[in-house]
Amino acid sequence: MSNRKLKMGMIGGGPGSFIGAVHRISAAMDGMIELAAGAFSSSPEKSAETGKELFLPATRVYGSYDEMFEKEKQLPEADRIDFVAIVTPNHVHFDPTKKALENGFHVVLDKPMTFNYEEAKTLNKIIEETGLLFCLTHTYTGYPMVKEARHLIASGVLGEIRKVYVEYPQGWLWTSLEKTDYKQAIWRTDPSKSGIANCMGDIGTHAFNLAEYVSGLKLTKLCADLNIVVEGRTLDDDGAVLLKFDNGASGVLMATQIATGAENNIKIRVFGDKAGLEWEQDNANTLIVRHPEAPDQVYRTGGNIPYLSSWSMENLRTPGGHPEGYLEAFANLYRNFARCLYARKNGETPKKEWEDFPGAEDGLRGMAFVEHVVKSGKSNEKWTKFEL
User: Fold this and answer.
1) CA dihedral angle for residue 191, residue 188, residue 261, residue 13, rounded to 10 degrees
2) DSSP 124-186
3) Bond into 350 cis (ω within 30)
4) 51 contacts: CB under 8 Å, gap ≥ 6
5) Furthest C-alpha separation in the chain
6) SS3 state of residue 335
7) For residue 62, what are the CA distances in angstroms to 24, 45, 183, 191, 339?
8) Is it the case that residue 1 has pLDDT exceeding 80?
9) What is the pLDDT of residues 39-55, one digit of tens each?
10) Which of 12, 92, 367, 388 is the most exposed place for a label (fewest CB within 10 A)?
């Protein structure tokens, strides 16, 4: 098994898809994975068109994911796909993931996990029952300095965590972009495709996942304020959430898509009783640790830096001074997933650092977060208990 690439099948990612190209580039970055097959659109014609553009054999380009699963299963093990990457809108996450797992294929799924929380609970059970590998692409956990931040907190450098601030400001939906032919805006603002939330489901789940991942804490209750700022929308485009964690710490989460002029600078700050730290995507190579009675410490990415932990070193790609960006962070998820899949096929035990990618629990908690945030936003009660 170790002398050939893992074969990936893709569902979605056809004409007009942004995230499909991101998955393909990231999966291919380390030479461990090759795109071997796909059902790229609900339209067989568009799927065939995409397959041709990607230079795939016509026999490995399918008109539906049902057809792909059925025909790929009939191929010899060395030829068939090893796993499936699912890059469809939210309402087409559950069924292909369920069927992929039931047909014996491992899965990489774009977030959020499902259309609603009930689907997430069902899918979580299927993942547990099949025992197959499942990765949910919460991209920002793949950054080396995010992993370093998590390690420092887990090592006690910050002491007892007291406060978590996480924010994700975007401005791309500051006007009614969904009234144009812009596909990404159309489906995200449509409740039949996006689910019960737009902003909180799309980027709020990223901020929530980052807060729990870095701090090592679990949310216990929340208080949300959701807004529809652009007239005519039926789903939120802005919101803020007060957070309470299992150690008693409090937090604030902000996610918005109407911050005019803002891009994608997701940022997290965590404060303990010994020190604090902060990281932001606009300066992704840098992690700042602040001490009350000493100068700030600036951690930087780069090969052979002796003060960095194995958790970040396993995810470094470039020499110091060269930016490690979004695609590299995304690729780190795929590389760790691939390493674990190789280990499984070869009967080996993967390194703990390789197993550090988002999975089913992250997906389930993310969908529970969306449901509780919407519930809280509609309620007159101050706090909503966070339960799975």
Assistant:
1) 180
2) HHHHHHH---EEE--GGGGSHHHHHHHHHHHTTTT-SEEEEEEEEE--TTSS-GGGTT-HHHH
3) no
4) 38, 40, 58, 60, 61
5) 66
6) helix
7) 17, 10, 22, 28, 28
8) no
9) 999 999 999 999 999 99
10) 388
Task: For 302-354, write each residue's pLDDT tens digit.
Answer: 877 889 999 999 999 988 888 889 999 999 999 999 999 999 999 999 999 99
Long-range pairs for 74-80: beta carbons < 8 A, 24 or more residues apart: 78/4, 79/7, 80/7
What is the Cα 206 distance to its own chain's centre? Answer: 7
d(C-alpha 69, C-alpha 104), whole Å: 9
- Degrees, nearest 5: CA angle 82-84-90: 165
Q: Is 144's pLDDT higher than 90?
A: yes
Q: Enter the pTM of the model.
A: 0.95
Q: CB neighbours of 129 closer than 8 A, spacing ≥ 6?
A: none
Q: How buried is residue 388: exposed, middle or buried, by Cβ count under 10 Å (0-12/13-18/19+)?
A: exposed
End-to-end Cα distance, the chain:
38
- Encoded tokens for 362: 């992250």
Helix (H) or strand (E) holding 235: none
What residue spans of 43-130 are helical by DSSP H? Answer: 44-53, 65-73, 94-102, 117-130
How far apart CA 259 and CA 248 sit, in angstroms, is: 31
Q: What is the DSSP letter of 61?
A: B
pLDDT digits (tens, 9 = 90+) for 152-183: 999 999 999 999 999 999 999 999 999 999 99
Opening angle at CA 264, ends 285 and 84, nearest 5: 85
Question: Cβ of 321: how many Cβ atoms within 10 Å?
Answer: 9
Q: What is the mean pLDDT of the chain?
A: 96
Burial 86-121, CB ≥16 within 10 A → b, else e: bbbbbbbbbbbbbbbbebebbbbbbbbbbbbbebbe
**Strand ranges (E), the chain:** 6-12, 33-39, 83-87, 106-109, 134-136, 161-169, 219-227, 238-245, 250-256, 267-272, 276-280, 286-290, 297-300, 384-385
